[in-house]
Design brief:
By secondary structure, the protein is of the alpha/beta class. The chain has 4 domains: 170 residues, 3-Layer(aba) Sandwich (Rossmann fold); 230 residues, P-loop containing nucleotide triphosphate hydrolases (Rossmann fold); 81 residues, Arc Repressor Mutant, subunit A; 159 residues, Sec63 N-terminal domain-like fold. The protein has an 8-stranded mixed sheet, with helices on both faces. Strands 5-4-6-3-7-8-2-9 form an 8-stranded mixed sheet, sandwiched between helices. A two-stranded antiparallel sheet has the order 12-13. Strand 15, helix 14 and strand 16 form a beta-alpha-beta unit. Helix 23 packs antiparallel against helix 25, helix 23 packs across helix 27 and helix 25 packs antiparallel against helix 26. It is globular and about 80 Å long.
C-alpha cells in the first residue's frame, strides 16, 4: 500500500514546468527610432578639412610638448603625419612608438606609403629594417631601450621628435612603467607628442611633464566624436529600443528609456533564448541587417564564445550580394597566397561563405591581420571579438554590440572601466562611411544595464602612475647614473608628482602605484641584492657580469644570467637552447604530467632538470628577499624543442595543449629572449651564435608569414 502524502505537499500536474518551445526573434523597432534609422547612410564626399583640434595640435608641437586626447577615430594620426612632415622639412628625424607590434607594422606600412619607403624604418622584436631612416616606427620597449643605450654612451637620442601613440598606456598596470620611463629619460630638447584616447586627468599629466622637462606642455582635448553614437537596447523579443531617454530634468545626464527602465526593474522580464551559452547570434545578425546596422563587431566574454558564435550564425545565414561574396573570395585568396596553413584554417568556411569571423588572442597573427583587413575593406558583416580588440587595432564598424558589462583581465572578471568602455564604443561609426554609429546592449546574465547607463554618461577615467623597480631598470640606470642620480630620476616620476603636487600631499590621487619613498626603498633592496651576487661592486658600479646582464632586457634577466654564469644552458645545441629559453618565457601553469618519455630525447629532460635544480638555490634567495621568480615548466620546453626540430605545426600544437595564438606568442617571445642573448656576443660568442641559429629554426610559417596585406 502506498504511503500517504499530505495534501499540501502533493505535486499538482498543472504546476509542473513544461519545456516551452523557444520563440524566434521577431525584428522590430520602437517608433522613437524611425527618425534615427532614417539617418543611416554614407555621408557626402567632401574635400578633407582638418578639425580645429587637429590644427591646434600641429601648432602646439611646434613650440613645445603636446598631449592630445580625443575619441577613437577622431583623426589623431593626421596630427602625427603633419608633425613628422614639419620635422622632416627641417632636416630632422622622428620616432613613432606604439604599444603593439601589430599596430607598429600597420603604421610602418601607412607611413611608408605617405613618406616613401626609403624614409621609413621599423624596429620591433621581430623586424629590424631601414634603421637609419628619417622616420622610425617601433614599440615603446625598443624606444626605452634606445634611451638606456644613449644615456650609457653619453649621447643624445638620434631623433628630433618623439610621438607616443596610445599614451593612456601610461596607466597600464603591466606596461605603464615603460611609458613613464620614456617620459622621464627623454631629453627635453626633443618635442614630445602624446596621442591618447580621452583621459580624465590630462592637465595633471601635462603639469607633471612640465615640471620634469621644463617645456610647456599644451593639452588639446576633443570630446566630440567624428561620427555620432546612438545607444540601442535589443529586447529579447527582437525589438530595438533607444537605450537612453535623454537628459533628465534634474541634470544633464541621460537616463534609461522608459521601456528599458521598465524591463530592468521588472521581476519577470522575458529572457532571450541562449544556445551554447550565447543568444541566437544568427537571428541577431538578421535583425541588424533588416535595419541596416551591419557591419558589426560583437564583443564577447571569451575566445570560446567568439568561436561558437560562428556556428550559430551559420545556421541563420543571411542572403548576400553575389558580387560582394565573389570579391571577398578573391581578396581572401590574395591574402593567403603565401600561407598554406592559413588557407586551411578551420574557420575559413565561415569567413568565405557567411562573411563572419572570430578575432581574439588565441588566433594566429596572420589570421587576425586578415580579419582586420577584410573588415576594414567592408567585406565582412560581423566580427566576434574579445574586448582586447578595442585597444590598438583599427577596424571600425557601423555597430558594436555588448553582451557583458565586465571583462577578463587575465586573472579575474572586473567591471568595465570608463576608458575600456569608450574604447569599445569608439569602434562604432566609420568616419567617411557612416552618418551615425550604434552601440547595442543585449541583456543577459553578465550584463548590468545600470552600469552601462552610467558608462555612457561617465567622463573618461584618470590615468595614474604604474612605475615599479625591476632588475633590468636598476642595471641599465647604473650604467650611466650613481644611486644619488637615480634617486633624482625617481623623484621625477609621475608617482612622486601626484603625491606632492603643488607642495601639498595628494594621496587621494594614488589608488595604485608606489610613492617616491617606496620606489627608492625598492631600488635600494634591488641594489643590495645585486651587490651580494656580485653584479654590482661595493662602490655602486656595474661589475663585468652586471654590464652584460644589463643587455638582457627580458622578464627574468637575473635568472637567465645566473644560468649563463653557471654554464647550465646547452649553448652548442640551437634546438635545445630554444627549448630551455621557452621555459623562462612561459607564464602559465602547464600539464607536465601529459608528457611522454618518447616525445623528446632523454638529454632534454636531463638538461631541464639540470637547469631547474641548478637555479633553485638562487631562486630561493631571490624569493626570500621579496623578488618574484618564474616557475619553470617542462611542456613549453618540449614544445619548442619539437618545433625547432621541424615537427609539423599541427602535431606541435596538439602536444602543447595551447591555442594557436598562444603557441605563436610563446615562440615569438622565446625568439625575443634569444635576440637579447645574441646581443651579448662580445662576451659569450658561442651562446650568441647558437641563439641566432635557434631564432632561424623557430621563426617560420605559420608563426611568421610572408603574406603581404
Amino acid at each position: 500500500m502506498a504511503a500517504y502524502t499530505p495534501k499540501k505537499y502533493r505535486r499538482r500536474p498543472y504546476l509542473q514546468k513544461k519545456k516551452m518551445p523557444q520563440k524566434r526573434l521577431k525584428p522590430g523597432s520602437d517608433a522613437k527610432l524611425k527618425s534615427i534609422f532614417a539617418t543611416i547612410g554614407i555621408p557626402e564626399k567632401k574635400p578633407f578639412k582638418p578639425d580645429k583640434f587637429q590644427t591646434d595640435s600641429v601648432e602646439a608641437i611646434r613650440i613645445g610638448d603636446c598631449l592630445v586626447t580625443a575619441p577613437t577615430g577622431a583623426g589623431k594620426t593626421w596630427i602625427a603625419e603633419q608633425a613628422i612632415r614639419n620635422t622632416l622639412n627641417k632636416g630632422g628625424k622622428a620616432w613613432y612608438a606604439t604599444p603593439l607590434k601589430a599596430l607598429t607594422n600597420s603604421k610602418y606600412s601607412e607611413f611608408s606609403q605617405i613618406f616613401g619607403q626609403q624614409n621609413a624604418g621599423i624596429l620591433t622584436g621581430d623586424r629590424k629594417e631601414n634603421t637609419d631612416a628619417s622616420i622610425i616606427i617601433g614599440t615603446t620597449e625598443i624606444l626605452r631601450n634606445q634611451l638606456y643605450d644613449a644615456m650609457h654612451r653619453g649621447r643624445d637620442l638620434d631623433t628630433d621628435l618623439v610621438i607616443l601613440d596610445e599614451a593612456h598606456f601610461l596607466g597600464d598596470p603591466e606596461r605603464g612603467v615603460v611609458w613613464e620611463e620614456i617620459m622621464i629619460y627623454l631629453p627635453s630638447r626633443i618635442p614630445l607628442l602624446l596621442l591618447s584616447a580621452t583621459i580624465g586627468n590630462a592637465h595633471q599629466i601635462a603639469g607633471w611633464l612640465e615640471s620634469i622637462r621644463k617645456n610647456k606642455c599644451i593639452v588639446i582635448e576633443e570630446n566630440r566624436r567624428p561620427v555620432r553614437l546612438f545607444p540601442l537596447f535589443l529586447h529579447p523579443s527582437g525589438t530595438f529600443f533607444p537605450l537612453l531617454a535623454g537628459p533628465s530634468s534634474q541634470g544633464s545626464k541621460q537616463r534609461l528609456y522608459k521601456k528599458v527602465y521598465k524591463f530592468v526593474n521588472s521581476r519577470h522580464s522575458p529572457r532571450m533564448k541562449y544556445d551554447r551559452r550565447l543568444p541566437p547570434m544568427g537571428e541577431i545578425l538578421g535583425a541588424l541587417k533588416k535595419y541596416q546596422l551591419l557591419p558589426s563587431i560583437i564583443f564577447l566574454k571569451s575566445r570560446a564564445d567568439c568561436d561558437n558564435a560562428l556556428l550559430l550564425c551559420a545556421m541563420e545565414a543571411c542572403a548576400e550580394n553575389p558580387e560582394r561574396k565573389a570579391l571577398r573570395h578573391r581578396r581572401i585568396n590574395e591574402l593567403i597566397s603565401a600561407s598554406a596553413h592559413i588557407s586551411r584554417h578551420k574557420q575559413m568556411y565561415y569567413l568565405k561563405e557567411f562573411a563572419i569571423g572570430a578575432h581574439h588572442s588565441g588566433q594566429l597573427p596572420a589570421w587576425k591581420l586578415m580579419i582586420e583587413t577584410l573588415m576594414t575593406e567592408g567585406l565582412l558583416d560581423a566580427v566576434f571579438a574579445t574586448s582586447t580588440v578595442a585597444a590598438g587595432v583599427n577596424f571600425p564598424a557601423r555597430t558594436i554590440l555588448f553582451l557583458n558589462s565586465d571583462r577578463f583581465n587575465g586573472r579575474e572578471f572586473l567591471s568595465l572601466t570608463s576608458t575600456e568602455f569608450h574604447q569599445m564604443t569608439g569602434r562604432a561609426g566609420r568616419r567617411g562611411m557612416d552618418n551615425i554609429g550604434f552601440a547595442v546592449v543585449i541583456p543577459g546574465k553578465f550584463m548590468d544595464i545600470r552600469l552601462v547607463e552610467k558608462l555612457f554618461n561617465s567622463p573618461p577615467s584618470d590615468v595614474y602612475s604604474q612605475i615599479k623597480i625591476n632588475f633590468s631598470m636598476v642595471l641599465n640606470l647604473l650604467l650611466s647614473h650613481t644611486p644619488e642620480q637615480v634617486k633624482k630620476l625617481l623623484d621625477r616620476s609621475f608617482a612622486a608628482y601626484l603625491m606632492t603636487a603643488g607642495g601639498r600631499k595628494k594621496e587621494h590621487y594614488m589608488p595604485t602605484g608606489a610613492t617616491a619613498k617606496q620606489l627608492w626603498e625598492s631600488f635600494l633592496s634591488h641594489l643590495d641584492f645585486l651587490k651580494e651576487k656580485k653584479y654590482v661592486t661595493n662602490d655602486n658600479r656595474l661589475a663585468p657580469d652586471g654590464e652584460w646582464t644589463s643587455q638582457l632586457r627580458i622578464d627574468h634577466p637575473l635568472m637567465v644570467a645566473q644560468g649563463i654564469r653557471k654554464d647550465l644552458f646547452p649553448i652548442s645545441n640551437p634546438s635545445m637552447f630554444a627549448a630551455m629559453m621557452a621555459a623562462f618565457v612561459n607564464e602559465r601553469e602547464t600539464d607536465d604530467e601529459s608528457i611522454e618519455a618518447s616525445m623528446a630525447p632523454k638529454i632534454l629532460f636531463k638538461t631541464f632538470e639540470k637547469i631547474n635544480n641548478g637555479l633553485k638555490p638562487f631562486a630561493s634567495e631571490m624569493e626570500s628577499n621579496g623578488f618574484q621568480t618564474p616557475r619553470l615548466f617542462l611542456l613549453p620546453a618540449v614544445t619548442l624543442f619539437l618545433w625547432a626540430r621541424g615537427l609539423a605545426w599541427e602535431k606541435v600544437l596538439a602536444i602543447s595543449k595551447m591555442a594557436e595564438g598562444d603557441l605563436a606568442m610563446l615562440i615569438l617571445r622565446t625568439a625575443d629572449n634569444l635576440r637579447h642573448i645574441r646581443n651579448i656576443g662580445s662576451v659569450f660568442p658561442d651562446a650568441a651564435r647558437t641563439s641566432g641559429k635557434a631564432i632561424d629554426l623557430i621563426l617560420r610559417e605559420p608563426v611568421v608569414s610572408t603574406c603581404e596585406v
